[in-house]
Amino acid sequence: MLILHTASLHKYGLNRIFEFAKAAGYDGLEIGVDKANYDTQNAEYLKQLSEAHQMPIMALHAPTNGAQKSVEHTIRMAEFLGCPMVVITPPRLLDFKFTSWLKKEVPGLRKKKNIQIALANANGNTILGFLPERALNNLEALKKFGMVALDTSSTVSKKWDLMRIYEHLRKLVVHIHLSNVRYHREYSLPNEGILPLESLLKKLKKDNFKGAISVLVRPSELNAGDDLDVVKKLKHVKKFVEEYFA
């Protein structure tokens, strides 16, 4: 299933993003729940858009630098929408309370709510040049969390080999954030860059991957502002994905 992450076109309103995804033939959307965008936090409004466009919401991405409260709200939204997936960005390194809550409470919430709750691998940014910027953002922590949303671009800044990391996490990967790295810029179009996404997509197909592949790129990559070109580029990405994962 190929879906579009709303952060890829965040400069547009949600209604327009639904229109673009529909016009490009995508299977659904991943909503980036944003503290600065109240519409993304309103489950009733999201349901209206989903029904009006006949476009399902297949994932909710909880706010970056969120907290227990924001994750709980995102999970309640997923329940209301019948959305099967919630993605969480790893907490900041010194946010001990949130980190502890995630480790202790998420396994129970998965069972209670019957929703997949996955941790994304974030980039490899550091504090003072050596401390990792985020907690729960190493291979062992991702394994212990139990469900992983594999972000392809973020593997580069951590100097991870994409295919080896996928093999290590294969049984835990339930969601994909798909983008490439081009001219050292992360979140480039999947069909342009240095990452072996063709090999990854072939491997996902071979492994009978059942999760969603969510296109998450910078808006400039889709030439946001030129509506016709946005749809054209989204279609090119779709064609690329379908060539290797159909």
Description:
Helix content is 41%, strand content 20%. The protein is of the alpha/beta class and 246 residues long. An eight-stranded parallel barrel has the order 1-2-3-4-5-8-9-12, surrounded by six helices. A two-stranded antiparallel ribbon has the order 6-7. α2 links the parallel β2 and β3. α1 (14-23) runs parallel beside α2.
What is this structure's SSE topology?
Elements: E1 2-5, H1 14-23, E2 28-32, H2 43-53, E3 57-61, H3 68-81, E4 85-88, H4 96-113, E5 116-120, E6 126-127, E7 131-132, H5 139-145, E8 148-151, H6 154-157, H7 162-169, E9 173-178, E10 180-182, E11 185-188, H8 197-206, E12 212-215, H9 227-244
Parallel strand pairs: 1-2, 1-12, 2-3, 3-4, 4-5, 5-8, 8-9, 9-12
Antiparallel strand pairs: 6-7, 10-11
Helix pairs in contact: 1-2, 2-3
Key terms for this structure?
two-stranded antiparallel ribbon; TIM Barrel; alpha/beta; 9 helices; single chain
The overall strand count is 12
Helix content: 40-55%
Strand content: 15-25%
Q: Under CATH, the topology is which?
A: TIM Barrel
- Which architecture name does CATH use? Alpha-Beta Barrel
**What is the makeup of the main sheet?**
8 strands, parallel, barrel
CATH class placement = Alpha Beta
Domains counted in the coordinates: how many?
1
| Cα gyration radius (Å) | 17 Å
Distance between the termini: 9 Å
What are the secondary-structure elements, in order, as H or E?
Answer: EHEHEHEHEEEHEHHEEEHEH
* Fourth-level CATH superfamily: Divalent-metal-dependent TIM barrel enzymes
Mean pLDDT: 96
Tell me, what's the shape? Answer: globular
Q: What structural category characterises the helix and strand content?
A: alpha/beta
Count of DSSP helices?
9
Work out the oligomeric state of the chains in this entry. single chain
Strand order of the largest sheet: 1-2-3-4-5-8-9-12
